[in-house]
Amino acid sequence: MKKINIYIILFILMLPFLSFAQGLEGIVVEKYYSTNAADGANATSEGAVSPLVTGSTVYRVYVDMAAGYKFSTLYGNATHNLTVNTTTNFYNDPNYGVSVNPGTISLTNIARHTALIDSWFTTGGTCIGKAGVLKTDDTDGSVGNVQGVLANNPGACFGLPITGAGSQDGMLPSIATTQVTPNTLGLGVGNALLAALDQTPGNSVVITNGSIAALGGVVGPNASNRVLVGQFTTNGVFTFSLNVQIINISTNIAENYVASSPSASEFTHPTLTRTVNTPPVVSITSPSNASSHTVGSSITINASATDNGTIASVAFYVDGNLLSTDLTSPYSATYVGVLGSRVLTAIATDNDCVSTTSSAVNITVIAGVAPPANDAIGSAILIPSINTFYPQCTLYNGTLANSTNSSQSVAAGPDNWYRFVAGSTAVSIEMTGAAMDNVIELVRETSPSVYTIVETENANPNVGAMERLNFSGLTVGTTYFVGCGSNTAGPGSAFSVCIKQLAISGCGTNTSAPLSICSTFKPLWTGANNYVITFAPQVGSTGGGTVTSVGSTSLGNVLYNLNPGNTYNVTVNAVYNLTNNAPTPVQEIINVAGASPSCSNVVIAASPGIEVRASQRCAAPAILLSSTTLRTDPLVCGATGYTFRFTPVVSCVDNTPTGASFTVNSVTRNITLNFPGTASIPVGQTIQNQTHYRVEVRPTFGANQGTFGPGQTIFIGGASSMQMVASSTENDWSVRSMTDEESFSFGIYPNPTNGLGINLIVDNATSNTIGLQIFDMQGRVVCSKQLIAEGSLQTYVSFDRDLPVGVYNVQLTSGDKIINERMIIQN
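Predicted structure:
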């Protein structure tokens, strides 16, 4: 393929603009199809690299332009990266999959297997002779499917099916102005940056200096002027940040649109960025839970609904039956009371067809005035286990106006009752009533119809004071009763009660496969202030330890003392720091013990075998000097040191020992060969000139040794200050200096990390002071530090502040040498 200077393209993208109207109407995302089990079975039988998970969504992405505009380019540069991401993998069709330009697939083959739902970038085309349109704009039906798959018909946001009766495949005949072959620039050999879209499991495409261009430009296949630029199939959360160039056809002036932070010559549009869609939040605000109403009365049901997009509708249900749907705020419905207990719910749906069901509100419709249904402990309202774990809770609004004082209560006034099944050993209960002295009572049924007070809370006797009962010591699986009452005789008033169970934690990290010692380990999030994570060695394993973390933690933490190839049981305890709302608030530390163990038989992957780099082995051939730095691969994160074992041997091909072996310890994986004899074991051994050595290296983990990697033979030829190597193209000897890549280097782990800090290993710094800077994708410095190193360094670096999820560049400066490494931060 001819190489075209990327700077020409970037120059075109940065042409100055005249004053004109913006032609981009937005980026349109279409939910094209949802997969079923038959689709996944077909993909597996055809040898799909990544499985096609049931329920995966096929997203199509269109550039929507005003009339008189044509699409030119998708691009990314150093200032504005182009990213397309998912939280799992993109699906690649095993037979006809491409990462770019499905326009090369024949009309026959696009109807075979799962070719129609492959993941790719395009410049209009979907197969030979067809261009993509929204299914609602399709007028010529479907090409169908030879194997009878892709037949799912989920409806709703997915519209009509893409195969079968009444289907629309979202393709119309194309011409030269609606489909061209994409021109890819700066995406690496074979478009390597798009590997996640073509038979390589992956979840991210990042373009920092390249483009996918429609040379000459393309327009949409119909009057709506939407050009299809990509299709992405995944069962994960799909997000992107796009940069688009379009051209005004009449003036031939280009308009550049970037996802964020446009310059004076650039535009932006909110649809260029697709973020994680947060489900709607919906709750019924009236009537109150456990309230009573009379038969035949009109009961107004009001709901509050919010979303990070827009609310499309709120549907109201009574006893699971649809009452009515409201499309505009404020959302309400009217129910005419029918005798009996009724359950009210509301379902909010947002503009992306994601729905949320509110917590249920229980009401009683009675013939006349009566006490609430939960006036007695025997009819306590069951609090569902869903969504009641800290910090979430189910909020109940009640009234004691018609309630009585129960015999199970030690308080003086009326009470209402609730019950829950303990999911952990601790609970936090809050009660607020503005016109009475609130009291909370926690009760357990110790034998049939015998109730025993476990704990009470009336720390603040003032009228209207909130009470909070924090209690540990529950028995998991046991039913507990919560009395909400007044501590003074006489009628009570309205109140609210919020019951939060403090959840046990567990392993949030998938431990079915061996974990790298470089990995980040996550506890299962429960809203706790921090987590105590303990790795206990199984039989035959060593090490183990405990770390207290606010969330994700690095397995390379020396306190864990983990050893590669060993197996551990993991226990995760959740620690809550709660306020007890007494007259003087105090903090209560409540420890909720996790399962023992929370995760069984967690395997730490074996350490890779460390060996001398190929370029320094005498078989290369290479002649090393006694002043040479011996370099090894690969980096073993978590290692606190390395042991080099030198054995003199006959030659490169004859490894018969000619003398005794000796070892030298090093804090890094590279060692300078002119070490003093006092550094060797036994003492006194040094490297000799004109000698072959068999070299083996093993890592050290805390107090434990790893295993020696493969032995490789080196040849020491002299004591010159330069390194002699054989030319790869000639039979003579040449002299060269060590390259930057062979001298100053560094590694970071874990990567991805959690936003709090990284472990840093530096080899062969050229100065004693090392500058570290971390840049976000907009080029802003988010962390800057000066480090001290005497050639090498291994340390933990805390960030100046918690960094949000994203991609960053880590830059180290030593003297006149500058090197970079990409770092990913995720939850």
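Summary: The CA atoms of residues 298 and 336 lie 5 Å apart.
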